[in-house]
């Protein structure tokens, strides 16, 4: 895999929010929603991003899709940095990176018909006649498994699963290559979830898509992803191939997450219950951000932030004891 | 939508009253029974008869003709002031709600400052500055309506711009004007229409008030407020003179208010 150029590279990507302090309205505080996130996504793969709510995984997706500007860091797409691109190249790259958002009903404009919504990306970015646009919309609706007649309906007339299909259709309209799937199935019920996941898999095969698959559902991520990154408090704590991580997690946070995974067979794995709350992003802990809830925390963890260490080829963990934490 | 409108009493009554108002207005544009400004000292204070449907006033002018002509004034002042208030308020509110931050602070404090004055006082000051007449009345009432539209626009923008479909459109490359015109505006149309209808009735009342005080519409141009003022002196001897313009103001304002309430009920729900 290393011979292939990554489609997307993030280098120290950060997104900070400034919020007013509760005590002093004139003081602004910084929230590091995404803090120096670095990762590479290769063409045709699915990179899963997991973590509990508030860990910055959605923010990272939004920055990638151009909804939010990054505070710092670099996004390289197709080997070229966004900051080095001309306006036209940037617009082209933006077209190829599309996002499907979490809530299928909130991400469709309630006053517009489905056909208009799916065709809007073409209306903005390309110059088609009305007939050509309608034809492309009809084809796309069929691709995502919707009836052509949906085009003349309003979003509230569709079910949740159908709406998510519409969102996928709109995102694919510009022949996008990288799809950021931001919790695409978490608002759907289980039977519909599997339909949408299989649709995404099918589209990936037929259209050579690359996915950044953001989710908090570990089963879903395992099913979908080739590689996986685990986020905690805005930082990546561990990443690697899915089998490596599910089989041999090295970061205590990943271990705790995986131990809570419900499964049909009793795997005889001890549940690791994390104590305490997620620390506030306003005042992140010193040293390793996870030390406040980590069983293995020692003085070293409280003082020195750990570095990313390579466990085996392509498997990295950000823990002082990553090499010792076997099994 | 049409079915629901039929069941909504507010909307129905309001629409009927406004239809009557519109018929009167259109007729007045075609012709009036008499020249509304023609005096006839021989026929002062005539009670309603077949010759003068609503009687005549202290100068012998036909009240029905004057009421009809007055509808034009009401309409001009109402529409112009709502248009001014809506345009300025929408732009300020859109900037305020979309950008937020310092621009929002400055605009909202300005609006607060304006709202600290009662509307009619502010309009009086403006008219004193630019001189009376129907155009300046419309202008002054338009300015007093700005904060109302500004606030409602700002609130809608702040709420809608955070929604997922705006984010989705952004990621698909939609420009800011496009976001506003195609995504935000259609979703805030109903509160805007309701506010505009209610602002219209406020403007009618304020115009009547200003004309009553002698600062709005200038004689001999007929205005319902002015007619009310003139009729005041003859209230005991010729009560119908005061009764007629009073009724017209009440019914028109009532019509707009009911229509506004009805529209709010009709457009408030998700089901179209």
From TrEMBL, chain A:
Residues 8-258 form the ABC transporter domain. Signal peptide: none annotated. One of its GO terms (biological process) is peptide transport. PROSITE patterns: ABC_TRANSPORTER_1 (PS00211), ABC_TRANSPORTER_2 (PS50893). Keywords: ATP-binding, Nucleotide-binding, Transport. The keyword Nucleus does not apply. SUPFAM superfamilies: P-loop containing nucleoside triphosphate hydrolases. The keyword Transport applies. It holds the Pfam family oligo_HPY. One of its GO terms (molecular function) is ATP hydrolysis activity. SMART domains: AAA (SM00382). Belongs to the ABC transporter superfamily. This is Peptide/nickel transport system ATP-binding protein. It comes from Sporobacter termitidis DSM 10068.
TrEMBL record, chain B:
Keywords: Cell membrane, Membrane, Transmembrane, Transmembrane helix, Transport. One of its GO terms (cellular component) is plasma membrane. It is found in: Cell membrane. It is a multi-pass membrane protein. Residues 71-260 form the ABC transmembrane type-1 domain. Signal peptide: none annotated. The chain crosses the membrane at residues 13-34, 74-99, 119-144, 192-215, 240-260. Its main location: membrane. GO terms for biological process: transmembrane transport. PANTHER family: OLIGOPEPTIDE TRANSPORT SYSTEM PERMEASE PROTEIN APPC, PEPTIDE ABC TRANSPORTER PERMEASE PROTEIN. Belongs to the binding-protein-dependent transport system permease family. This is Peptide/nickel transport system permease protein. It comes from Sporobacter termitidis DSM 10068.
